[in-house]
Amino acid sequence: MQGVLDKSILLSVQELTVNFRAEAIVARALEGVSYEVRQGETVCLVGESGCGKTVSALAILGLIPQPPGEIPGGRILFMGQNILELSEEELQNLRGNHIAMVFQEPMTSLNPVFTVGEQIGEAITAHQKVEGDELRERCIRLLKDVGIPSPAERLKDYPHQLSGGQRQRVMIAMALACSPQLVIADEPTTALDVTIQKQILDLFKTLKSKKGMSLLYITHDLNVVANIADRVYVMYAGIITEQGKKRDIFQNPCHPYTRGLIASLPARSKRGEALHSIPGTVPDPAYKPRGCPFHPRCTYAVKKCSEEFPEMLDCGDGHLSRCPVVLSSERKTNTIRTHEGPHYSDL
Ligand SMILES: Nc1ncnc2c1ncn2[C@@H]1O[C@H](COP(=O)(O)OP(=O)(O)O)[C@@H](O)[C@H]1O
Ligand SMILES: [Mg+2]
User: Fold this and answer.
1) Residue 323 is assigned to a structural domain of this protein
2) C-alpha dist (Å) from residue 85 to 53, 61, 80, 160
3) Which of 28, 118, 121, 129 sees the fewest Cβ atoms within 10 Å?
Protein backbone atom coordinates (compact mmCIF):
# COMPACT_ATOMS: atom_id res chain seq x y z
CA MET A 1 0.00 0.00 0.00
CA GLN A 2 1.01 3.54 -0.69
CA GLY A 3 2.13 5.15 2.56
CA VAL A 4 3.38 1.92 4.09
CA LEU A 5 6.16 1.11 1.65
CA ASP A 6 7.40 4.65 1.06
CA LYS A 7 9.50 5.39 4.15
CA SER A 8 9.71 9.11 3.37
CA ILE A 9 5.96 9.47 3.94
CA LEU A 10 5.36 10.46 7.56
CA LEU A 11 1.61 11.06 7.40
CA SER A 12 -0.81 9.63 4.89
CA VAL A 13 -4.46 10.60 5.13
CA GLN A 14 -6.39 8.23 2.87
CA GLU A 15 -9.99 8.70 1.73
CA LEU A 16 -10.95 10.26 5.06
CA THR A 17 -14.66 10.87 5.58
CA VAL A 18 -16.04 12.77 8.59
CA ASN A 19 -19.73 13.50 9.22
CA PHE A 20 -21.44 15.49 11.92
CA ARG A 21 -24.93 14.26 12.72
CA ALA A 22 -27.69 16.34 14.28
CA GLU A 23 -30.89 14.28 14.42
CA ALA A 24 -31.78 13.47 10.80
CA ILE A 25 -29.32 15.97 9.30
CA VAL A 26 -25.88 14.76 8.25
CA ALA A 27 -23.21 17.37 7.62
CA ARG A 28 -20.54 15.86 5.35
CA ALA A 29 -17.53 17.81 6.61
CA LEU A 30 -14.94 15.64 4.81
CA GLU A 31 -15.62 13.36 1.85
CA GLY A 32 -12.77 11.09 0.83
CA VAL A 33 -9.92 13.47 1.65
CA SER A 34 -6.40 12.21 0.89
CA TYR A 35 -3.10 13.94 1.45
CA GLU A 36 0.45 13.17 2.44
CA VAL A 37 3.20 14.81 4.42
CA ARG A 38 6.74 13.58 3.83
CA GLN A 39 9.73 13.78 6.17
CA GLY A 40 11.02 17.34 6.49
CA GLU A 41 8.34 18.79 4.22
CA THR A 42 5.99 21.75 4.70
CA VAL A 43 2.55 20.98 3.33
CA CYS A 44 -0.14 23.65 3.22
CA LEU A 45 -3.86 22.93 3.35
CA VAL A 46 -5.59 26.00 1.93
CA GLY A 47 -9.23 26.93 1.35
CA GLU A 48 -11.91 29.34 2.51
CA SER A 49 -13.41 29.12 5.98
CA GLY A 50 -15.71 26.13 6.46
CA CYS A 51 -13.96 23.86 3.92
CA GLY A 52 -12.93 21.24 6.51
CA LYS A 53 -9.31 22.17 7.23
CA THR A 54 -9.59 22.15 11.02
CA VAL A 55 -11.72 18.99 11.04
CA SER A 56 -9.01 17.18 9.10
CA ALA A 57 -6.35 18.33 11.61
CA LEU A 58 -8.48 17.30 14.60
CA ALA A 59 -8.99 13.86 13.05
CA ILE A 60 -5.20 13.38 12.85
CA LEU A 61 -4.98 13.96 16.61
CA GLY A 62 -7.99 11.77 17.41
CA LEU A 63 -9.90 14.85 18.59
CA ILE A 64 -13.15 14.62 16.60
CA PRO A 65 -15.96 14.58 19.20
CA GLN A 66 -17.96 11.38 18.63
CA PRO A 67 -20.93 12.00 18.74
CA PRO A 68 -21.86 14.28 17.00
CA GLY A 69 -18.91 13.36 14.76
CA GLU A 70 -18.47 10.02 13.02
CA ILE A 71 -15.71 8.69 10.81
CA PRO A 72 -17.35 6.16 8.50
CA GLY A 73 -14.38 5.74 6.19
CA GLY A 74 -10.70 6.26 5.59
CA ARG A 75 -7.35 5.74 7.24
CA ILE A 76 -4.83 8.10 8.80
CA LEU A 77 -1.43 6.43 8.66
CA PHE A 78 1.26 8.02 10.81
CA MET A 79 4.58 6.24 10.39
CA GLY A 80 2.55 3.40 8.88
CA GLN A 81 0.16 3.04 11.85
CA ASN A 82 -3.56 3.82 11.49
CA ILE A 83 -4.38 6.56 14.01
CA LEU A 84 -8.10 5.76 13.73
CA GLU A 85 -7.46 2.37 15.36
CA LEU A 86 -5.49 3.64 18.38
CA SER A 87 -6.80 3.52 21.97
CA GLU A 88 -7.18 6.75 23.97
CA GLU A 89 -3.97 5.90 25.84
CA GLU A 90 -2.05 5.42 22.58
CA LEU A 91 -3.49 8.69 21.26
CA GLN A 92 -2.29 10.53 24.36
CA ASN A 93 1.20 9.20 23.78
CA LEU A 94 1.02 10.34 20.14
CA ARG A 95 -0.19 13.87 20.94
CA GLY A 96 2.64 16.18 21.92
CA ASN A 97 5.21 13.41 21.75
CA HIS A 98 5.06 12.63 18.01
CA ILE A 99 2.47 15.05 16.61
CA ALA A 100 1.92 18.50 18.14
CA MET A 101 -0.56 21.19 17.22
CA VAL A 102 -0.41 24.98 17.33
CA PHE A 103 -3.84 26.62 17.26
CA GLN A 104 -4.99 29.99 15.95
CA GLU A 105 -5.72 31.76 19.22
CA PRO A 106 -2.99 31.33 21.81
CA MET A 107 -5.01 33.07 24.54
CA THR A 108 -7.61 30.29 24.55
CA SER A 109 -5.00 27.52 24.36
CA LEU A 110 -2.79 28.88 27.16
CA ASN A 111 -4.16 28.57 30.68
CA PRO A 112 -4.41 32.07 32.23
CA VAL A 113 -3.82 30.84 35.82
CA PHE A 114 -0.46 29.12 35.19
CA THR A 115 2.87 30.74 34.39
CA VAL A 116 4.65 30.27 31.08
CA GLY A 117 7.25 28.11 32.85
CA GLU A 118 4.62 25.86 34.43
CA GLN A 119 2.89 25.33 31.09
CA ILE A 120 6.03 24.59 29.08
CA GLY A 121 7.20 22.36 31.92
CA GLU A 122 3.90 20.46 31.81
CA ALA A 123 4.25 19.97 28.03
CA ILE A 124 7.60 18.25 28.72
CA THR A 125 6.67 16.23 31.83
CA ALA A 126 3.46 14.96 30.20
CA HIS A 127 5.74 12.61 28.24
CA GLN A 128 9.18 12.66 29.83
CA LYS A 129 10.61 12.25 33.33
CA VAL A 130 12.49 15.51 33.77
CA GLU A 131 12.52 17.68 36.91
CA GLY A 132 14.25 20.41 38.89
CA ASP A 133 17.08 22.37 37.29
CA GLU A 134 17.11 20.15 34.21
CA LEU A 135 13.42 20.91 33.55
CA ARG A 136 14.06 24.64 34.04
CA GLU A 137 16.99 24.54 31.64
CA ARG A 138 14.89 22.71 29.03
CA CYS A 139 12.14 25.37 29.35
CA ILE A 140 14.66 28.19 28.96
CA ARG A 141 16.21 26.53 25.92
CA LEU A 142 12.78 26.12 24.29
CA LEU A 143 11.93 29.80 24.85
CA LYS A 144 15.32 30.75 23.41
CA ASP A 145 14.67 28.52 20.36
CA VAL A 146 11.44 30.37 19.61
CA GLY A 147 13.13 33.77 19.91
CA ILE A 148 11.81 35.03 23.25
CA PRO A 149 14.23 37.54 24.82
CA SER A 150 15.29 37.12 28.49
CA PRO A 151 13.78 33.62 28.61
CA ALA A 152 14.66 32.94 32.27
CA GLU A 153 12.61 35.96 33.37
CA ARG A 154 9.69 35.12 31.07
CA LEU A 155 9.21 31.75 32.81
CA LYS A 156 7.58 33.58 35.74
CA ASP A 157 5.18 35.52 33.50
CA TYR A 158 1.49 34.76 33.08
CA PRO A 159 0.08 34.63 29.52
CA HIS A 160 -1.66 38.04 29.82
CA GLN A 161 1.73 39.68 30.48
CA LEU A 162 2.94 38.73 27.00
CA SER A 163 2.11 40.23 23.60
CA GLY A 164 0.04 38.21 21.08
CA GLY A 165 3.16 37.35 19.09
CA GLN A 166 5.03 36.20 22.21
CA ARG A 167 2.08 34.07 23.31
CA GLN A 168 2.13 32.37 19.92
CA ARG A 169 5.88 31.79 20.34
CA VAL A 170 5.17 30.16 23.73
CA MET A 171 2.58 27.90 22.06
CA ILE A 172 5.17 26.94 19.47
CA ALA A 173 7.69 26.24 22.26
CA MET A 174 5.13 23.96 23.92
CA ALA A 175 4.50 22.18 20.62
CA LEU A 176 8.25 21.59 20.22
CA ALA A 177 8.72 20.46 23.85
CA CYS A 178 9.07 16.75 23.05
CA SER A 179 10.62 17.18 19.57
CA PRO A 180 7.62 15.86 17.59
CA GLN A 181 8.14 14.54 14.05
CA LEU A 182 5.08 16.46 12.84
CA VAL A 183 3.78 19.88 13.84
CA ILE A 184 0.28 20.83 12.72
CA ALA A 185 -0.23 24.60 12.71
CA ASP A 186 -3.86 25.66 12.27
CA GLU A 187 -4.01 29.32 11.16
CA PRO A 188 -1.35 30.20 13.77
CA THR A 189 -0.85 33.74 12.50
CA THR A 190 -4.41 34.71 11.61
CA ALA A 191 -4.98 36.66 14.85
CA LEU A 192 -1.66 38.53 14.56
CA ASP A 193 -0.79 41.70 12.70
CA VAL A 194 1.13 41.44 9.45
CA THR A 195 4.63 42.23 10.80
CA ILE A 196 4.31 39.69 13.61
CA GLN A 197 2.79 37.21 11.14
CA LYS A 198 5.91 37.43 9.00
CA GLN A 199 8.14 36.90 12.06
CA ILE A 200 6.20 33.77 13.10
CA LEU A 201 6.40 32.37 9.55
CA ASP A 202 10.16 32.98 9.57
CA LEU A 203 10.35 31.23 12.94
CA PHE A 204 8.54 28.17 11.57
CA LYS A 205 10.95 28.05 8.63
CA THR A 206 14.02 28.33 10.88
CA LEU A 207 12.74 25.71 13.31
CA LYS A 208 11.84 23.35 10.51
CA SER A 209 15.32 23.47 8.99
CA LYS A 210 17.04 23.30 12.40
CA LYS A 211 14.97 20.46 13.82
CA GLY A 212 14.15 18.56 10.61
CA MET A 213 10.50 18.21 11.54
CA SER A 214 7.59 18.12 9.10
CA LEU A 215 4.97 20.83 9.08
CA LEU A 216 1.30 20.64 8.13
CA TYR A 217 0.34 24.29 7.85
CA ILE A 218 -3.35 25.19 7.60
CA THR A 219 -4.38 28.60 6.29
CA HIS A 220 -7.02 30.43 4.26
CA ASP A 221 -4.34 32.89 3.08
CA LEU A 222 -2.53 32.22 -0.20
CA ASN A 223 0.13 34.79 0.69
CA VAL A 224 1.10 32.58 3.61
CA VAL A 225 1.12 29.54 1.30
CA ALA A 226 3.43 31.37 -1.12
CA ASN A 227 5.74 32.13 1.78
CA ILE A 228 6.02 28.78 3.51
CA ALA A 229 4.79 25.78 1.47
CA ASP A 230 6.73 23.07 -0.33
CA ARG A 231 3.54 21.39 -1.52
CA VAL A 232 -0.08 22.53 -1.45
CA TYR A 233 -3.50 20.89 -1.14
CA VAL A 234 -6.43 23.14 -2.01
CA MET A 235 -9.65 22.20 -0.15
CA TYR A 236 -13.18 23.09 -1.05
CA ALA A 237 -16.39 21.90 0.67
CA GLY A 238 -14.77 18.86 2.28
CA ILE A 239 -12.80 17.63 -0.73
CA ILE A 240 -9.31 18.22 -2.14
CA THR A 241 -9.79 20.06 -5.43
CA GLU A 242 -6.17 20.53 -6.49
CA GLN A 243 -2.75 19.50 -5.26
CA GLY A 244 0.81 20.00 -6.34
CA LYS A 245 4.13 21.70 -5.74
CA LYS A 246 3.81 25.35 -4.75
CA ARG A 247 5.17 26.58 -8.05
CA ASP A 248 2.66 24.51 -10.09
CA ILE A 249 -0.27 25.66 -7.96
CA PHE A 250 0.61 29.35 -8.36
CA GLN A 251 1.96 29.40 -11.90
CA ASN A 252 -0.26 26.80 -13.53
CA PRO A 253 -3.45 26.43 -11.46
CA CYS A 254 -5.70 23.84 -13.13
CA HIS A 255 -8.82 24.16 -10.99
CA PRO A 256 -11.20 27.15 -11.28
CA TYR A 257 -11.37 27.40 -7.46
CA THR A 258 -7.58 27.79 -7.21
CA ARG A 259 -7.68 30.32 -10.05
CA GLY A 260 -10.40 32.25 -8.19
CA LEU A 261 -8.39 32.28 -4.97
CA ILE A 262 -5.30 33.53 -6.80
CA ALA A 263 -7.29 36.16 -8.70
CA SER A 264 -8.67 37.42 -5.36
CA LEU A 265 -5.20 38.33 -4.16
CA PRO A 266 -4.09 41.93 -4.52
CA ALA A 267 -1.63 41.76 -7.43
CA ARG A 268 1.28 44.12 -7.15
CA SER A 269 1.30 44.63 -10.90
CA LYS A 270 -2.37 45.61 -11.00
CA ARG A 271 -2.49 47.96 -8.08
CA GLY A 272 -5.60 50.13 -8.02
CA GLU A 273 -7.85 47.71 -9.89
CA ALA A 274 -10.89 46.26 -8.13
CA LEU A 275 -10.24 42.89 -6.54
CA HIS A 276 -11.73 39.89 -8.23
CA SER A 277 -13.42 37.68 -5.69
CA ILE A 278 -15.26 34.41 -6.14
CA PRO A 279 -19.02 35.01 -6.11
CA GLY A 280 -21.15 33.10 -3.59
CA THR A 281 -20.11 31.17 -0.48
CA VAL A 282 -18.88 27.73 0.60
CA PRO A 283 -21.94 25.42 0.81
CA ASP A 284 -23.25 24.15 4.16
CA PRO A 285 -21.86 20.59 4.43
CA ALA A 286 -25.39 19.31 5.15
CA TYR A 287 -26.67 20.69 1.84
CA LYS A 288 -23.92 20.32 -0.73
CA PRO A 289 -24.86 20.59 -4.39
CA ARG A 290 -24.78 17.46 -6.56
CA GLY A 291 -21.84 16.88 -8.88
CA CYS A 292 -18.86 19.16 -8.35
CA PRO A 293 -19.55 21.11 -5.13
CA PHE A 294 -17.91 24.21 -6.67
CA HIS A 295 -20.10 24.29 -9.80
CA PRO A 296 -22.65 26.91 -8.58
CA ARG A 297 -19.78 29.41 -8.16
CA CYS A 298 -17.78 28.36 -11.18
CA THR A 299 -17.46 30.39 -14.36
CA TYR A 300 -16.21 27.31 -16.26
CA ALA A 301 -19.16 25.05 -15.28
CA VAL A 302 -20.91 22.97 -17.96
CA LYS A 303 -23.92 20.68 -17.62
CA LYS A 304 -22.04 17.60 -16.45
CA CYS A 305 -20.51 19.58 -13.53
CA SER A 306 -23.92 19.53 -11.81
CA GLU A 307 -24.37 15.81 -12.52
CA GLU A 308 -21.07 13.98 -12.00
CA PHE A 309 -18.69 14.09 -9.07
CA PRO A 310 -15.32 14.98 -10.63
CA GLU A 311 -12.40 12.55 -10.41
CA MET A 312 -8.85 13.69 -9.61
CA LEU A 313 -7.06 14.15 -12.95
CA ASP A 314 -3.33 14.09 -13.56
CA CYS A 315 -1.73 17.33 -14.73
CA GLY A 316 1.76 15.80 -14.52
CA ASP A 317 4.58 15.69 -11.98
CA GLY A 318 2.41 15.19 -8.89
CA HIS A 319 0.07 17.99 -9.91
CA LEU A 320 -3.59 16.84 -9.77
CA SER A 321 -6.86 18.67 -10.27
CA ARG A 322 -10.53 17.76 -10.03
CA CYS A 323 -11.68 19.81 -13.03
CA PRO A 324 -12.24 17.92 -16.30
CA VAL A 325 -13.48 21.10 -18.01
CA VAL A 326 -10.24 23.07 -17.63
CA LEU A 327 -8.14 20.03 -18.44
CA SER A 328 -10.02 18.94 -21.54
CA SER A 329 -10.44 22.42 -23.01
CA GLU A 330 -6.93 23.68 -22.34
CA ARG A 331 -4.93 20.43 -22.46
CA LYS A 332 -6.19 19.30 -25.86
CA THR A 333 -4.81 22.37 -27.50
CA ASN A 334 -1.91 22.56 -25.08
CA THR A 335 -3.03 25.96 -23.90
CA ILE A 336 -2.89 25.56 -20.14
CA ARG A 337 -1.31 28.89 -19.60
CA THR A 338 1.02 30.29 -17.08
CA HIS A 339 -1.19 32.22 -14.75
CA GLU A 340 -0.64 35.93 -14.69
CA GLY A 341 -1.29 36.38 -11.02
CA PRO A 342 0.72 38.20 -8.39
CA HIS A 343 4.48 37.81 -8.54
CA TYR A 344 6.00 36.01 -5.61
CA SER A 345 9.63 36.31 -4.80
CA ASP A 346 9.34 33.11 -2.74
CA LEU A 347 8.36 30.82 -5.61
N1 LIG B 1 -18.26 19.69 16.29
C2 LIG B 1 -18.91 19.98 15.14
N3 LIG B 1 -20.25 19.77 15.02
C4 LIG B 1 -20.90 20.04 13.87
N5 LIG B 1 -20.32 20.54 12.77
C6 LIG B 1 -19.00 20.78 12.82
C7 LIG B 1 -18.22 20.52 13.99
N8 LIG B 1 -16.93 20.84 13.74
C9 LIG B 1 -16.92 21.30 12.46
N10 LIG B 1 -18.14 21.25 11.90
C11 LIG B 1 -18.49 21.65 10.53
O12 LIG B 1 -17.56 21.10 9.61
C13 LIG B 1 -17.33 22.02 8.54
C14 LIG B 1 -15.83 22.23 8.36
O15 LIG B 1 -15.36 22.99 9.47
P16 LIG B 1 -13.83 23.36 9.69
O17 LIG B 1 -12.98 22.16 9.54
O18 LIG B 1 -13.77 24.06 11.01
O19 LIG B 1 -13.54 24.38 8.52
P20 LIG B 1 -12.23 25.27 8.27
O21 LIG B 1 -11.22 24.92 9.32
O22 LIG B 1 -11.77 24.93 6.88
O23 LIG B 1 -12.70 26.68 8.37
C24 LIG B 1 -18.06 23.30 8.88
O25 LIG B 1 -19.27 23.35 8.15
C26 LIG B 1 -18.35 23.16 10.36
O27 LIG B 1 -19.55 23.82 10.71
MG1 LIG C 1 -10.35 26.18 10.77
Assistant:
1) yes
2) 21, 12, 12, 39
3) 129
Q: Which ligand is nearest to the CA of 47?
A: 1
The tens digit of pLDDT for each residue in 282-298 reads 999 999 999 999 999 99
Specify if 120 maps to a domain: no
Domain range for 263: 9-98+180-270+277-331
Could you tell me which of 85, 110, 86 has the C-alpha nearest to residue 97? Answer: 86
What's the mean per-residue pLDDT of the chain? 91
Give CA separation, 326 vs 252, 261, 277, in Å: 11, 16, 19
- Tell me how far the alpha carbon of residue 140 lies from the centroid of ligand 2, in angstroms: 31
Q: Mutation test of ligand 1: which of 26, 54, 66, 219 has the most ligand atoms closer than 8 Å to its C-beta? A: 54
Domain contains 35: yes
Nearest atom in ligand 1 to the alpha carbon of residue 56 is 17
Number of domains in the chain: 1
**Domain CATH for 281:** 3.40.50.300
28 ligand 1 Cβ < 6 A: no
pLDDT digits (tens, 9 = 90+) for 32-50: 999 999 999 999 999 999 9
Residue 228 lies in a domain: yes
CB-ligand 1 contact for 51 (6 Å cutoff)? yes
| Ligand 1 atom nearest to CA at 284 | 25
